[in-house]
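dude i think i finally got it to work??
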Amino acid sequence: MTQDLAVEVLQDPSHGFTGVPNQRGGSSAAAVDEVSAELRVRLFPSGTGLSILAIPRGTLSPDSAAWHEAPLEVSAEELLDRADRLLAIWRDQVVGHRNTSPGYRQQVGSYPLADAVDLTELRTLTDPLVAKLADEGFDLLHVLLDGTGYDLGRFREFLLGTLAGGQQLRISFDSEWQLPWPMLAVNPAECDSPWEAFLGHRHQVEQARTGYPWDHAPLGRRDRATASLNKDTSLDHVDRAHEVQKMLEERALLTVRTHGSELLEALSRSVLHEDLMYFWCHGRFVHTGASSQVLAVRLSDSEDIDGPVVKRKRRSYIRSPQSRFKPFVLLNACHSAKAADPGRLKHLGQELIDQGADGVLAPQIEIPQAFAAEYAYAFLDRYLTGAHTAGAIGQWLVRRFAREFHNPLALVYSLNGGINTRLDLVS
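look at this
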């Protein structure tokens, strides 16, 4: 008699044959990729309010099926307002910090924290500022979890203990209300330094995509990555900008676009042969009504490229197995990681994710040009090796800029999807 066997999967290193298992051995520099424990945190509407769900996987919990859930006592409106407040503090006190007195290599009226990448000589300024930013990040996490309910208290105990624990995690925050997750922090008083309090420093963090993945037309095996540089030529003068382009030319089959019409023509094709899409341009908010605005970017011309136009160009291809749009996107333009509120027109990064992009990495506020170019060079240099995931590189950059340059701005970059994405030339 045929008998069905019960099978329990205890480990799934390939994530259902959708990912590359962790490679053992190698240099210690790659150790940040080898994170075995995962945590998925979901914010969702429940009744007239919000609830929060956390599901640990891997060695984080002996019981891989354990989950934690509780109703929140904070409203979505207050959460978004507090998130905007945190972003404004970073914008005004880091990027917008203005020198009011003459100092070492500084002029009155200059912006010392934005004018240079290496802030080591300004440690007397950055160290107390980082401590303040960590306190603000912890306050937002406290606001999220604050309340008197019994279930919420137990959930708060679990989540804060997990986030502040010594184990490094891959954390996916699944929510239509997007918060600046890497800039949130655990209690700085319990950390060796304020830098280590930030979630983006302690863990690999992403804003998770929702919905089922869809099949894309295969490209087969390639010898080299295909990439595009979508740029505003007025930024060619920035240090490292030419080095980024040269690296892409040497290590990938590169398409350079300088006009919006070129980008829209490429997006109109059913199959876009790109493993990597890099934007080096300005981002700005375009008003679409009395109380509505949408994030758009411009290349070297005056054409706005925003979420609605991308959706229109690819409307007939969505979820078609005969089409392909699956690049990892480094959207190096101011504000471009910021998400539109639920029910509003989606910003560019959100729409690229909806159209199938493997992930979008972008800054949540204005970003100094010199820092943006340095960040892009360091990220792409590691990503193009195919040896590291986007999530691991993002965390490595946060730690590197903190350690070597005493610069906190790498925490401004937010990963929307793609935490496990690495360059793979077989598809």
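The CA atoms of residues 91 and 365 lie 6 Å apart.
im so relieved honestly
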